[in-house]
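Thread: glutathione complex, take 2
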Amino acid sequence: MVVKVYGPACASAHRVMVCLVEKEVEFETIPVNILTGEHKNPEFLKLQPFGSLPVIQDGDYTLFESRAILRYYAEKYKSQGTDLLGKTMEDQGLVQQWLEVEAHNFQPPLYNLLRQIMLSSHCGITRDEQVIKESEEKLGKVLDVYEDRLSESRYLAGDFFSLADLAHLPLTEYMVGPVGKAYMIKERKHVSAWWDEISSRPSWKKVLEMISK
Ligand SMILES: N[C@@H](CCC(=O)N[C@@H](CS)C(=O)NCC(=O)O)C(=O)O
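Output below.
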C-alpha cells in the first residue's frame, strides 16, 4: 500500500517526502490548501487535531509531526535505502541531538525570517525590520556553531548523512532562495560545503522536481 502524504505545499511536508525517497518508500501526495483553510476543516482535523501539515497515512496508521514521521520511517525501514539513524548507539545519540538542534535552535529564527520576508502578506502581519535583524543575528550564531562542528566532521552527526542533515533541507532551500539569505551559508566555508553536498543529493533534487510541478 502506498503511503499518503498530506501536504505537500509546505516545508515540513518536504522534509517527510525527502525521507521517504531516501528510504525508497513509495508515496503519493494529497493536496491540502492552507491558503483556503482546508487544514482546519473538520474532516482534516480528524487526522490532525491541531490543523497542521504534514500528516501521513500508512494503511490504517496515521502520524503527524514531521520529525516524528522521519524517526518512524528511518526505524521501520532501517535496512532499506539509506541508513539515516547511525550504526552505533553513540552515533544514534548524535543524530537525535542534531535533529533536536534543527528543531529548537535552527528552525525558529529561520522560520521568523521566512514569515517576515516571504509570508507577511499571507499571514496578515506587517513586516518588522527589528524582528528580521534579531532573527538573522540569532540564526548567525547557530550557524557559527554549525561551522565549528562541520570543521571537524563531514555531516552534523559524524561522517555519515543522517536525519539530522536531512531535516535541514526544506527550510535551508527557502533560506538560500526566496528568503534571500544565501550569503549566511556562503560566508561559512564548512557550512557552505555541507549545504552543497546535502542539497545535491538525488533525493532532494527529486523532491524539488516533484514540488515544482
Ligand atoms: N512541528 C510541525 C510543524 C508543522 C507546520 O508548521 N506546518 C505548517 C505548514 S509547513 C502548517 O500547517 N501551518 C498552518 C497552521 O499551523 O495553521 C511539524 O514539523 O510537522
